[in-house]
């Protein structure tokens, strides 16, 4: 299914006019209709108009409640403005610095702590009695629809935007490449500042399906119950959450009970690669629809592999999707033959032949399957030997009791190559984990500095933040110490 609308507001409005009482959002057992969301957005449009928001203006939104952020986004579209979402876990100073990149000078939030900051305006509570409201979205096809940020995993986030017309065309093209996922009732969790979450909501508004919206902060058991919803058909989760769910269902009797979420038609990863053992176990234990999607911020989904294929091609992220060409090249952008390791390059033939080079290391096999071996930032040189630090991560992730980890390189002040740092998220004692690392990781790859913690710093996408880890590793007062 594709849409005839040329802006997101009109696409959603068509669904509201067709059936205003149809469910749009389910949140903690409460159902919110299309018409209710439109009416709430109309009230916020009055607020933004009175605040002086103008056509073409980028406006910062910091919302703990996803539906409230979506209502605000609709309201801004009706004025010809565009949202730029930030995460409530960012400081006001971080938000201001990032907002400056896109020229946003107005800040609206539903988070009371941030509303105490100068220039941050608190969004009003929703009224008990809601008057009917309808918005118009006139001549906004070629204005920015939303300002999206890169994940900021390795450095400062960078922003980009697409017009309504171009973004809808992109969704329609993805519909052709990936299949009928846009018409599947989905679940979303996380911050709207994460591209995948925001894009999921844009699909919802455009194609008229229902979305289960999880609170920003929820327990694993709450997520598990939501995933068992009989009407849920599609979900994308961070690999660390899939690992948590595997642990939760570790003793499940598959022969008697079957997989935990049999009704799902698509159960994919988002926000980073998943360990091949986890994908294979998810295929059997959680859902036969389990798959790993390799995506990048400027290209969307690039390749996909199912759990069954992962068993046959361990470590692969699958073949490139239709309309996408992938090759491996050296540092001088010369193409490398199958089997050789180099930098991944991607060309989207459906976006004016645009070429994207994400900085990921990989190789292609003879049958065209892609293997992602890590980021170029995760290479270390020790005694003239290059070490792929993702190999350390694979070994550590296989250890019992480890939830997640990241290995990364730091400059050696003695100019003897790189120092290797390892940060591990686990409840295990430091000494126990260090002993296991010495047993299972080759001496050549032992870390120089080591940090064991129950919670690693993460960005809005749920990825471990390499930028924050590097800052901590260079701080002598942090939890990193000699291995």
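^ Assign residues to that structure.
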């Amino acid at each position: 299914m594709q849409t005839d609308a040329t802006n997101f507001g009109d696409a959603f409005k068509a669904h509201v006019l067709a059936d205003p009482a149809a469910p749009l959002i389910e949140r903690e057992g409460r159902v919110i209709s299309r018409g209710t969301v439109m009416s709430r957005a109309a009230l916020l449009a009055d607020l933004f108009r009175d605040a002086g928001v103008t056509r073409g203006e980028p406006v910062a939104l910091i919302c703990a409640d996803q539906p409230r952020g979506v209502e605000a986004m609709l309201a801004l579209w009706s004025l010809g403005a565009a949202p730029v979402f930030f995460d409530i876990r960012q400081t006001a100073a971080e938000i201001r610095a990032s907002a400056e990149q896109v020229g946003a000078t107005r800040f609206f939030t539903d988070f009371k702590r941030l509303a105490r900051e100068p220039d941050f305006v608190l969004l009003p509570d929703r009224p008990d009695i809601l008057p009917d409201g309808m918005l118009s979205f006139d001549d906004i096809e070629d204005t920015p629809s939303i300002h999206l940020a890169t994940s900021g995993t390795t450095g400062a986030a960078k922003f980009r935007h697409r017009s309504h017309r171009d973004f809808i065309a992109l969704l329609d093209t993805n519909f052709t490449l990936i299949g009928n996922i846009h018409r599947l009732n989905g679940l979303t969790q996380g911050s709207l500042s994460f591209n995948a979450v925001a894009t999921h909501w844009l699909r919802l508004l455009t194609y008229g399906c229902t979305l289960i919206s999880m609170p920003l902060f929820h327990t694993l058991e709450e997520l598990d119950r939501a995933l068992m919803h009989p009407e849920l058909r599609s979900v994308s989760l961070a690999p660390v959450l899939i690992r948590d769910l595997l642990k939760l269902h570790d003793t499940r009797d598959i022969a008697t009970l079957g997989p935990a979420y049999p009704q799902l038609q698509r159960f994919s990863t988002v926000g980073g690669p998943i360990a091949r053992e986890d994908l294979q176990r998810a295929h059997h234990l959680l859902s036969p629809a389990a798959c790993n999607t390799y995506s990048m911020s400027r290209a969307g989904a690039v390749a996909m592999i199912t759990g069954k294929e992962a068993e046959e091609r361990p470590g692969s992220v699958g073949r490139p999707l239709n309309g996408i060409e992938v090759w491996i090249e050296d540092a001088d952008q010369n193409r490398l033959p199958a089997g050789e390791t180099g930098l991944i390059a991607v060309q989207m033939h459906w976006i004016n032949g645009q070429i994207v080079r994400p900085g990921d290391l990989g190789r292609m096999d003879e049958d065209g399957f892609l293997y992602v071996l890590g980021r170029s930032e995760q290479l270390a040189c020790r005694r003239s030997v290059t070490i792929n630090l993702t190999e350390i991560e694979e070994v550590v992730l296989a250890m019992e009791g480890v939830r997640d980890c990241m290995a990364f390189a730091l400059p050696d002040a003695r100019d003897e190559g790189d120092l290797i740092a390892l940060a591990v998220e686990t409840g295990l004692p430091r000494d126990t984990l260090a002993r296991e690392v010495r047993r299972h990781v080759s001496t050549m790859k032992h870390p120089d500095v080591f940090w064991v913690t129950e919670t690693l710093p993460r960005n809005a996408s749920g990825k471990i933040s390499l930028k924050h880890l590097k800052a901590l590793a260079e701080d002598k007062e942090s939890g990193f110490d000699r291995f």
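The chain has three domains: 8-207, 219-376, 383-482.
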